[in-house]
Write a structure and sequence with these properties.
The chain folds into 3 domains: about 55 residues, no CATH class; about 180 residues, Rossmann fold, CATH 3.40.50.150; about 100 residues, Tetratricopeptide repeat domain (Serine Threonine Protein Phosphatase 5, Tetratricopeptide repeat), CATH 1.25.40. A 7-stranded mixed β-sheet has the order 6-2-1-7-8-10-9, covered by helices on one side. A 3-stranded antiparallel β-sheet has the order 3-5-4. It is α/β, with parallel strands linked by helices and about 400 residues long. The relative contact order is 0.09. Helix 11 links the parallel strand 7 and strand 8. The chain is about 50% helix and about 10% strand. The structure holds S-adenosylmethionine (SAM). The site of S-adenosylmethionine has 24 residues, from loops.
């Protein structure tokens, strides 16, 4: 049981909850620092209140700055795809809050460079409470732990070896700026960010701080702007007026009424495409595998579960649907995206190829398969698919 005065200190300083940070770790830090200062453990909370330097050191010791490049991968693949499709204005301003040691901020910059966005058009800000983590971010030197699960071709293209580590080269470092900011003291955030990643912070916050931060983030979102949360951050309350965009696993949100996908038309235009020109394509005829309304409801439910991050349930629902409607390209596409989110690239590829066999014009399936192949080093095939996607888009808007 943590001393209530320390609990209050954490809540006041960062909206933090000792239980979420790990009570054992907080208690061990408290005892160690008291010992080092030669102060009785019971008196240490008073020291925290009186000594701003000790308060800052203690906070640094209990914060959890764990992060790595392309963490959860899907959000970054999606950012590349959206930038390719022209979702955001240029220059594009992005925020990583919290950025910890900077891998997330640099990953945003890398994802945009992958889409061919010119360096001069990329401005990424990284904010965090931890000055120690920010120093590492500015230095841009990273060990193997920061690269876990990152495709080798991305490392080769954007980072360079530095002894047993890698470093963000100056041209990448120039795209990101880091600043110490408390997420709860930033006031209204923006107004000029097109893309905000706020991942793996809400899990450490108490209910009030969570609400305050989410409200501040949402308040500033304009229709084309995107907020990406972490997979463990939970689903923001519907009243916040956010709706999911992008594939399951991107955990991306934009402002708007909840997405209603017509039950009998699983090929409704994707809500993640920009609503501005080109004009909407004429309605497409139902696919050969078009389902009955009851079956289509099952597919819509699978999509909703996927949007909420309930991947296992979504998978089960989608698989059951496919048993009855094996010729529905939309269901194979959804299955493909679920496999992507569950990190099963082979199965994802098979499902997306099935979707394209049934509907060669499926722009989303073309885009996702291209990303998958790129990721697998098959960039020639990926380029061909992108050309097909572009042609399908032009035909759709002609
Ligand atoms: C687990 S890291 C998340 C980093 C990155 N967003 C990611 O998902 O990989 C959590 C970070 O939140 C920061 N943090 C905790 N409370 C904060 C607050 N009130 N304001 C800003 N940053 C905070 C910590 O310093 C830590 O670096």
């Amino acid at each position: 049981m943590i001393d209530p005065r320390v609990e209050r200190f954490l809540a006041r300083r960062g909206g933090l909850v000792a239980e979420a940070l790990g009570e054992g770790a907080v208690q061990a830090t408290l005892e160690r620092r008291a010992r080092e200062l030669g102060v009785a453990v019971e008196l240490y909370p008073e020291r925290l209140e009186e000594d701003p330097r000790e308060a800052a050191e203690f906070l640094e010791d209990v914060l959890i700055p764990e992060t790595w490049f392309y963490r959860d991968i899907t959000p970054f693949l999606w950012i590349t795809e959206q930038a390719l499709q022209g979702r955001w204005r240029r220059p594009l301003r992005a925020l990583s809050l919290p950025c910890a040691s900077g891998e997330e901020a640099y990953s945003i910059a890398i994802a945009l460079r992958e889409a061919g966005v010119a360096p001069a058009q990329i401005e990424v800000e990284g904010w965090d409470l931890s000055e120690r983590a920010l120093e590492r971010a500015r230095r841009g030197l990273y060990g193997p732990f920061s690269l876990r699960g990152v495709p080798g071709w991305l490392i080769d293209r954007h980072l360079r070896p530095a002894g047993t580590s890698v470093e963000a080269p100056p041209e990448l470092r120039a795209l990101a700026r880091f600043e110490q900011r408390n997420a709860l003291e930033t006031g209204p955030i923006g107004p000029d960010f097109d893309l905000i990643l706020c991942r793996n912070l809400l899990i450490y916050l108490d209910a009030g701080a969570r609400r305050q931060l989410l409200a501040a983030l949402v308040q500033r979102l304009a229709p084309q702007e995107v907020l990406i949360l972490g997979h463990a951050d939970g689903w923001p309350e519907a009243t916040l007026g956010l709706r999911p965009v992008g594939p399951p696993g991107a955990f991306a949100h934009e402002r708007g009424a909840p997405a209603h996908r017509p039950l009998t038309a699983p090929r409704a235009p994707s809500p993640r495409l920009p609503p501005s020109p080109p004009p909407p394509a004429p309605p497409r005829p139902p696919s050969p595998g078009a389902a009955t309304p009851a079956q289509a409801r099952q597919l819509a439910e699978a999509q909703q579960l996927a949007d909420r991050g309930q991947l296992d349930e979504a998978h089960l629902r989608c698989a059951t649907y496919l048993e009855r409607s094996p010729l529905d390209p939309a269901a194979h596409r959804l299955m493909g995206l679920l496999h992507v989110a569950r990190k099963s690239p082979r199965e994802a590829e098979a499902s997306l190829r099935r979707a394209l066999y049934l509907d060669p014009e499926d722009q989303e399936a073309l885009g996702h398969l291209a990303l998958l192949l790129d990721h697998d080093g098959r960039s020639d095939q990926a380029a061909l698919l992108r050309r097909r996607q572009e042609m399908a888009r032009r035909r759709g808007s002609a």
